[in-house]
Amino acid sequence: MIPAVLYAVPAFLLLIVVEALSYRFAPDDDERGYELRDTTTSLSMGAGSQLIGFPWKLLTVGAYAALWTVAPVHLSPTSVWTWVLLFFADDLAYYWFHRTHHEVRLFWAGHVVHHSSRFFNLSTALRQSWTPMTSLPFWLGLALLGIPPWMIFLQQSISLLYQFFLHTERVDRLPRPIEWIFNTPSHHRVHHGANAEYLDRNYGGILIVWDRLFGTFEPERATVRYGLTKNIASYNPLRVATHEYAAIWADLRSARCWRHRLGYLFGRPGWQPLTPAVPPAPAVTR
């Protein structure tokens, strides 16, 4: 089974070239544009993600198929309501997949790859994780609902295709009704921001309504500073893919107890053990 997104790769590359040329002929001082080493890293991360992800997809097909087989009902792919249910269920699954990968450090270690660029352009969309196995649990419920596995994969591809176009500074805010319901380049610029007010916001895939419902929405106001709160000074794809796992390993080795080890693995990124309060020195009497 070949992921549908692979068929769109030539179009992705063409659009990246077009966007890069647009900066050459219509520059904007408020936009970062492209940087050759950064873009090369993003493309390398995307290629590696597809190579690693293909055999994992085969295992995922088996998991979805097994759950679909034992589902109480099998929904018809010819029913428009099955497609409506799939659209909303997939987008909600993506929201919680995305949010969990920001709020749990072990998952963040893979997803941090996507946020490691200090540029924001269409090539950034291809800067993907090399550890796709952490996504599996979030879509298993759709198979148990009776949605055929091929439909789940197709809707995931549609969502990824949509999100490719979110990674651009060339599109300003869209009309208000669209901005209120759908994820847009403006909303996604916020998501990639390292500004304190933009951290862990706007997790939506196609829709932004989940962020509004669950309190994680933030509009674009201040100029976005892209990248990580602590950026890595490397364009090496292997370093980009593994640096947070290496940091977790170093923290685990230095941990003094299992509670601290679990905190380093499953706490929020940046979690640190509480430092015991130092009791005040006793008063000296003379």
Description:
Helix content is 52%, strand content 0%. With 286 residues, it is mainly α. The protein has one domain (4-266). The longest helix has 35 residues, at 36-70. The protein starts with 8 loop residues before the first helix and ends in a 20-residue tail after the last helix. The model has no long low-confidence stretch (mean pLDDT 93). It holds the Pfam family FA_hydroxylase. It is found in: Endomembrane system. Residues 83-216 form the Fatty acid hydroxylase domain.
Low-confidence stretches: none
Listing every helix as H and every strand as E from the N terminus to the C terminus, the arrangement reads HHHHHHHHHHH
Largest sheet geometry: none
Task: Work out the helicity level.
Answer: 40-55%
Task: Report the average pLDDT across residues.
Answer: 93
- Global outline: globular
Alpha-carbon distance between the termini? Answer: 84 Å
Structural class: mainly alpha
Strand content: under 5%
Count the E strands.
0
Q: Say what oligomer this is.
A: single chain
Q: Rg to the nearest angstrom?
A: 21 Å
* Number of DSSP helical runs: 11
What is the domain tally?
Answer: 1
